Amino acid sequence: MTDYPWGALGLNLALSAAAALLVLLATFAVAVVRGGRHRTVDIAWGLGFAAVALTTFAASAGEGDTARRTLIAVLTVVWGVRLAGHVTWRSWGKGEDPRYERMLAKAPGHPQLYALRMVYLLQAALVWLISLPLQFGAYLPGPLGWVVVLGIACWAVGLFFEALGDWQMHRFKSDPANRGKIMDRGLWSLTRHPNYFGDFMVWWGLFLVAAGTWQVAAITVVSPLVMSFLLIFGSGKRLTEKTMSQRDGFDRYAARTSGFFPLPPRRNARPEDGPRP
Asked: Residue 221: what are its φ and ψ, rounded to 5°?
């Protein structure tokens, strides 16, 4: 990588950090104007990555491989805008998210400043860190190889699980007869978290599309690893199941249904068998 444009990448890293920060600060301002309703930040997660992808595409003009740059931008923006649109639709007209209510109730000092530090600025930093493969990959010369095809396939599987899982959950919750019940149909019978599994596949797919050399892969593999940790052990699966476990029927559902990776349901499972990992 002796001919890699490190100077141009350095400028891109700074511009992308500014783009992510701008999206999250603007979202914080909107949340404050709305009376401190911080569930708005969930919309900014997808938009932050879209902003970084578009910033990188513009800043890398004249550098790298045009096909790879375009693929990175399009795949990221499609994923980010779909997610932001879904979160907006799902949360429209609702009050504050209980997660943020609990966090701010224990906040030392001014709650809004605490939210700025621990939610918005932290999320901006994560957007920048997780998007490193997109930024490095945009400056790689061609040609594209078979790994890119594998990456696109992973991304497509992830988007399918995420979008279809969200739609199935919406249909389930729209039926008053399902109020208070556990969703265990469709993709939700294969994994307790098709949306988080979808995110997992999308970001490993984007990593494969962007990491055209082993050097870039070695430098940026931290990004999909961080995303995977967040989805499985951080604010994704772990926190969601902490709330779900209080609902009637969750133990039976968890005993027969895979915790993350899609698997056929376990037959004759009993709550005392414990949740499937």
From this structure: -65, -20
Instruction: Convert the pLDDT of each residue in 164-211 to its tens digit.
Output: 999 999 999 999 999 989 999 999 999 999 999 999 999 999 999 999
Distances (CA, A) of 18 to 112, 129, 135, 226: 21, 13, 14, 21
Q: How far apart are CA 182 and CA 246, in angstroms?
A: 11
**Rounded to 5 degrees, what are φ and ψ at 8?**
-65, -40
Side chain identity, residue 266: R
Look at residue 134 and tell me whether its pLDDT is greater than 90: yes
Those residues whose C-beta lies under 8 Å from the C-beta of residue 198, and which sit 6 or more positions away, are: 157, 158, 159, 160, 161, 162, 163, 165
Model confidence pLDDT, tens digit, residues 242-264: 888 888 899 999 999 999 999 99
